[in-house]
Write a structure and sequence with these properties.
With about 600 residues, the chain is α/β, with parallel strands linked by helices. Helix 9 packs across helix 10 and helix 10 packs antiparallel against helix 11 (about 345-365). It has helices at about 15-25, 60-65, 90-110, 130-140, 140-160, 205-220, 250-255, 275-290, 295-305, 310-330, 345-365, 370-375, 380-385, 390-400, 410-420, 560-565, and strands at about 45, 75, 80, 115, 165-170, 185-190, 225-230, 260-265, 425-430, 430-435, 465-470, 485, 495-500, 510, 520-535, 540-550, 555-560, 570-580, 585-590, 600-610. The strands form five sheets. A six-stranded parallel sheet has the order 1-4-5-6-7-8. The termini are far apart. It is globular, with a radius of gyration of 28 Å.
Length: about 600
């Protein structure tokens, strides 16, 4: 399980030593477990870790070499790039320097068994004539990579015959080459980052899983030194329940069956209060040592030992989360911002019941340690409930269901933030610490929108005949840079949603229309007030529409020309009279445009006028 990204400043020297001893007891000897004392065997020595072309522990950093040797770096769109680039893998002079530096690093690390020579963590492979020809011959950018790595490995072996040369089959290099084969001293570390983790990698039907299997079979056929880099958490949100527990054992066994000689399970090492992080580390460690172990026995052994009488209820919770992910029938990636696509109100209510039962069982046991552990494990559920409180409230009202959870969300949020500090929570997503103002962005804390003036199309109508959607009437998005709410004197209430023309996501997306009072099969005329900042008069600025979530169909979709909404004043866009249902929603999305043509689009309001 992952220790590589742990922020070791969070722990004391004594804690680090204890971590090392515990790692040894779990037989976790990966290179980053540097705190394993020598008397316990020490860590396995991998020089450089990963992305070593020049991003991390760089072998040939452009800050040192680029000015004199730009030809050593990728040619991209006719230009040698210093930043966000890779190496020109067919450059012989660069390869000679790589061999020299690698031998130097190995001499400085006499206990090492392996060194990483691997691509940076971005695209940017070289497009020069020689690299392109080699990649076309091999059918993949892995072609030039393996040719290069083989030549380096051959030279390094002359001085260091026992050292393995590790490289990645990752993203653009994941597809295996047609002809070249890795040398005997080359390790291929194959990465599963694109896959869906709600279904097994061996049998899952998601396109990404099918493609991964094909690539794994290809590398398996050509390499006896196959390592796997697998992903077992949600890096975009450590706090989100992650419905992958049911595939952990099956995926690991699949790797073993495919001949993997090493496996790295990258999990949540940044958050102390993530989704059952202690269970996951212990469970995976035991399966890594013995992939044939009974996973149910392991689960019960840890849960009974660590949570006591609360264990049965928490096991049911883990099963509930896994079942919810499978039932939703959507891909569960390792970078997902929240749970909205797969965790339902009914699931959340059942989760509250199970945690209440677990807390009661721990209290019955009269053990404050167990009670504290159960409370800590509930924090991801707290976070889902608090983050989506308004959405859950709306759904409960619309469906007549009950919303379980704390009586007062404000008090619950205060307690939640206090517990984050108490447990020294760490990171809420990879590389992002919990900020001091973490509670600021919760929607139920935000001020209500100021009312807008009555549109001309509704003049003289009673209020019950028309519905007005302003800024807070759209589902909030946690992804950065999709939209901002800005002051706008031209808008009906002085505020608007601004979306840059850098994406085409439905970032302005209403709640189900039933939340605002729309009934099934009722007739409404739908208007939008829109504008855009544009230097061009040509093409489209945005697309708008209505989608039927229950029927999984588009009701209407309409491109909006720049010429119709260009300028500082809002224009009305009429979608006509539509037969609406409660589960439909209105959406608006920008289109991707050059900033010199269209910079941003603005949404003042959406309003619906009753027509029956």
């Amino acid at each position: 399980s992952d220790g590589c990204f742990t922020d070791h400043s969070l722990v004391t020297e004594d804690e680090q030593r204890a971590m090392g001893i515990f790692s040894a007891r779990l037989r976790l000897n990966g290179h980053d477990h540097y705190s394993i004392p020598d008397e316990y065997g020490g860590p396995n020595g991998l020089i450089g870790w990963v992305h070593t072309f020049y991003q991390i522990n760089g072998l040939l950093p452009p800050s040192k070499y680029f000015d004199k040797h730009p030809e050593w770096y990728s040619l991209i769109n006719g230009e040698r790039r210093k930043e966000n680039s890779q190496l020109c893998l067919t450059n012989d002079q660069m390869r000679e320097e790589m061999v020299r530096v690698v031998n130097e690093r190995i001499r400085a690390n006499p206990g090492a068994t392996m060194i990483s020579i691997s691509q940076n963590d971005w695209k940017g492979n070289c497009e020069c004539e020689k690299c392109t020809a080699l990649d076309e011959h091999e059918g993949t950018p892995a072609g030039s990579l393996i040719h290069f790595i083989n030549k380096v490995a051959e030279e390094v072996e002359k001085e260091h015959p026992g050292i393995l040369i590790e490289t990645l089959a990752y993203q653009y290099t994941r597809k295996p080459p047609k002809h070249v084969r890795p040398r005997h001293n080359v390790v291929i570390r194959l990465c599963s980052i694109e896959c869906s983790f709600s279904e097994t990698l061996a049998e899952g039907k998601d396109d990404a899983n099918v493609a991964f299997r094909q690539d794994l079979e290809g590398w398996r056929a050509m390499s006896s030194q196959l390592y796997i880099w697998d992903y077992v958490t949600n890096f975009s949100n450590y706090f989100a329940p992650h419905p992958n527990f049911h595939v952990l054992a099956a995926n690991l066994r699949y790797f073993v069956d495919c001949g993997a000689i090493g496996i790295f399970e990258q999990g949540d090492s940044g958050c102390r209060v993530g989704d059952f992080v202690r269970l996951r580390a212990w469970y995976l460690a035991h399966l890594l040592w013995d992939p044939g172990a009974d996973e149910k026995r392991l689960l019960h052994e840890f849960m009974d030992g660590y949570y006591g009488a609360a264990a049965p209820h928490l096991i049911q919770y883990i099963e509930l989360i896994s079942e919810a992910g499978q039932r939703a029938n959507i891909p569960i990636r390792c970078f997902m911002n929240d749970t909205r696509g797969w965790l339902t109100l009914a699931d959340i209510n059942r989760a509250w019941e199970l945690f209440a039962a677990a807390a009661a069982a721990a209290a019955v046991a009269d053990d404050p340690v167990l009670a504290q552990r159960v409370r800590r494990e509930r924090l991801p559920l707290d976070h889902v409930w608090l983050r989506h409180y308004q959405l859950l409230q709306r759904e409960a009202r619309r469906t007549g269901a009950e919303l379980l959870g704390p009586e007062d969300p404000e008090k619950a949020l205060i307690e939640f933030c206090q517990l984050l500090k108490k447990y020294n929570a760490g990171e809420y997503r990879q590389g992002r610490r919990f900020p001091e103002d973490f509670a600021k962005g919760f929607t139920f804390r935000q001020e209500p929108d100021p009312p807008g003036d009555t549109p001309n199309e509704c003049a003289g109508f009673p209020k019950e005949r028309w519905i007005d959607l302003q800024e807070s009437d759209y589902i909030p998005r946690s992804e950065p840079n999709l939209y901002t709410v800005v002051k706008d004197d031209a808008a009906s209430n002085g505020l608007s949603r601004r979306m840059p023309n850098t994406h085409q996501i439905w970032a302005c997306h209403s709640y189900p229309l039933g939340d605002y009072g729309v009934t099934d099969d009722s007739r409404w005329r739908v208007y939008l007030r829109l504008r855009c900042d544009a230097h061009s008069h040509q093409g489209n600025a945005m697309t708008v529409g209505i989608y039927d979530d229950a029927g999984r169909r588009s009701v209407v979709s309409k491109p909006i020309p720049v010429s119709a909404v260009r300028g500082s004043e809002y224009q009305s866009v009429d979608l006509g009279v539509q037969t609406l249902r409660k589960q439909m929603y209105v959406w608006i999305a920008p289109v991707v445009r050059n900033r010199q043509e269209v910079e941003a689009v603005y949404v003042d309001r959406v309003f619906l006028v009753r027509s029956d």
